[in-house]
Amino acid sequence: MNKALILVALLFMGCSSAELVDNWKNPDIVIFDANKVLIVGMTSNSKAQKEFETKMKKHFSNRGVEAMRSLDVFDVEFTDSERSEEELDEVEQSLLDKDFDAILFTKILGSENKESFRKEMTDINRYHDKFKDDYLSHQDIYYDENYYDEYKVYHAETSLYCICVGKERELIWRGIIDITDPSNIKSVIDDYIELVVLAMEEQDLIFHKETDEEDSTKL
Fold it and tell me: What per-residue confidence (pLDDT) applies to 111?
């Protein structure tokens, strides 16, 4: 866990509805760049998914990185029912064939008890280190309309996966984020995206801070 990053993020977000509570970066990765990113927002709320993926795509485009929404890549029927490991293998191969080299995967989770949930989430051993396994373990979020009914506290995960050839679709970074005011979807999405972008920038993952020299050229 990068405590300095968490502190910076909290100061940056102020009274935001999104709070970064933990994050992990692959220790073998110093800087990670991507040329084409698939943005996946996993939720049964189609309106929220569209809003999230569209706004996140805009952030990538503004930074000169090509990105596509899962809504434009996956068939509508794909998220309507459970998929097999073989089908996910085919999806990953099709993404490679289309020159994607990264996936930014966000999913909404829930827990009755906030503290116990945080303890569970911070155990890195429970993480799936491949997109396929992560997707398969949580795909019922898409089509189970009662998925969130039993929960009183909501949390989210955003994971960055490399799907480059020879990289075994490895996990690059994962952030755990609490959503403190889920009532205003648009506001939550804006705050969430700003926080994820900041966290990735701090870790030199796709988004990079501008140097003083770069800043001076804009004056």
Answer: 55
DSSP code for 49:
H
Q: Express each pLDDT in 77-124 by its tens digit.
A: 777 778 888 888 888 889 999 999 999 999 877 655 444 444 444 444
Other CB atoms within 10 Å distance of the CB of residue 177: 24
16-25, 90-99, 116-125, 165-174: the lowest-pLDDT one: 116-125
| Residue 139 one-letter amino acid | Q
**What's the token pair of residue 100?**
């994607």
| Domain residue spans of the chain | 3-209
CA distance 16 to 3: 19
Nearest Cα to 156, choosing from 113, 127, 201, 121? 121
Q: Token pair 């970064």 is at which residue?
A: 20
With CA atoms as reference, report the closest residue to 45 among 177, 179, 175, 189. Answer: 189
Q: Do 131 and 161 contact (CB within 8 A), yes or no?
A: yes
The CATH number that domain 3-209 falls under is 3.30.160
Look at strands 66-69 and 18-25 and give their pairing. Answer: unpaired
Closest CA to 95 of 132, 43, 137, 48: 132
Q: Do 175 and 20 contact (CB within 8 A), yes or no?
A: yes
Pair of tokens at residue 167:
């990289």
pLDDT for the residue 181: 63
